[in-house]
Amino acid sequence: LFGKSGAQVKMNARDFAEIWFNSTSLMLDGCFEEATSGIKSIRYELKNKDGTILSQGTSLNGSEKGNFKFFNITVSDFENSTENHLKLYASDKAGNEQTAEWIIKVDSKNPELKENSLSVDGIIEDADKKLSNGKNDVVIKGSVFDELSGISKVQLSLDNGKFEKDAVLSESEEINEKNFEFTVLSAELSAGNKTVYAKIFDNAGNSPEIKLFDLVIDKKSPTVTFISPKEVSYFLLTSFITQISPWIIIIPYFLGFLLK
């Protein structure tokens, strides 16, 4: 921010209407120029979209150099909103006053992973662990949302490493929501336990890291071992023969009777 003659405030370098801030406390840093009587005071007033005053204050201090008056003001109590109305007043020593107003967009809330949206290889994952044989790619899908500034990108990482790979984003039917898809190639799946993390970015610069699940890579095939049956003990064999011996006598006699 800087000012010209008559303490008129003008923007310098960028347009606030196109920028999202991720803090509810912002610092104004700039200067005014007043060639005649000089700057007396600088004050601000912050209102929400309904016109309610959120904060206000005055800056009487600041260095001067020639016709320039430098200032540094910290404005607090911004709301998470698309419409914070910040008005700056500059008064010179002759009693003249000029104002300027900007609309400041603030989103200090983190984007989130939509509940029950995560799927791995087409299966909705509600567990903390996923098993894989490492022979096939692992396809991870889900949905993320952000109430204000919107989703910028989603990155995934194994073992909390570098978040270098972006997921593919697509539009969702829900407002402020986007779907993502990420494929972990089988070549990247070395044996052992991995932890899959997601980093979700919104357009205000908020970027929380979220643990998605543990990925267990088991590339070893199971081993089958055949165990021979044990020999039947003499006691069990003798007992069995004793129990069936009456039938050994009866059955031939019965068959002879039927053949007559």
The H/E string reads EEEEEEEEEEEEEEEEEEEEEH
Helical segment count: 1
Question: Average pLDDT, to the nearest integer?
Answer: 80
What global shape is seen? elongated
What does this structure look like?
The chain has 260 residues and is mainly β. It has one helix and 21 strands. The strands form five sheets. Strands 11, 12, 13, 15, 18 and 19 form a six-stranded antiparallel β-sheet that branches. A five-stranded mixed β-sheet has the order 3-10-9-5-6, with no helix packed on it. The protein has a five-stranded mixed β-sheet with strand order 14-21-20-16-17, with no helix packed on it. The protein is elongated and about 110 Å long. The relative contact order is 0.14. Mean pLDDT is 80; it is low at 1-13.
Compact summary:
This protein is mainly beta.
SSE inventory with pairings:
Layout: E1 2-4, E2 8-10, E3 20-21, E4 26-33, E5 39-48, E6 53-59, E7 64-65, E8 68-75, E9 81-92, E10 97-106, E11 112-113, E12 119-120, E13 123-124, E14 129-132, E15 138-145, E16 151-158, E17 165-166, E18 168-171, E19 177-184, E20 192-202, E21 209-217, H1 234-259
Parallel strand pairs: 3-10, 14-21
Antiparallel strand pairs: 1-2, 4-8, 5-6, 5-9, 7-8, 9-10, 11-15, 12-13, 12-15, 15-19, 16-17, 16-20, 18-19, 20-21
Which key phrases capture this entry?
single chain; 260 residues; mainly beta; 6-stranded antiparallel sheet; 5-stranded mixed sheet; 1 helix; elongated
